[in-house]
User: Fold this.
Amino acid sequence: TLMDFKTGRPPRDPSEIPEHHLKQLAIYRALLLDLYPDREVAAMVVWTALPQAVTIPPRRLDEALAAITLP
Assistant:
């Protein structure tokens, strides 16, 4: 499981997690999947203010990764 710790408070609804956080996690997950192709990689955001952890569905991370564009 990949965990990305964030300061501050989480959004009220997990669907409102900022896109830049999702893209960052998606990149980390893609790198780990390349290194460990025979394993599943779960991803979570851990908000340190509460603390609270939110698991991000793989489909959502795949969509965030596909939305990344390079200049």
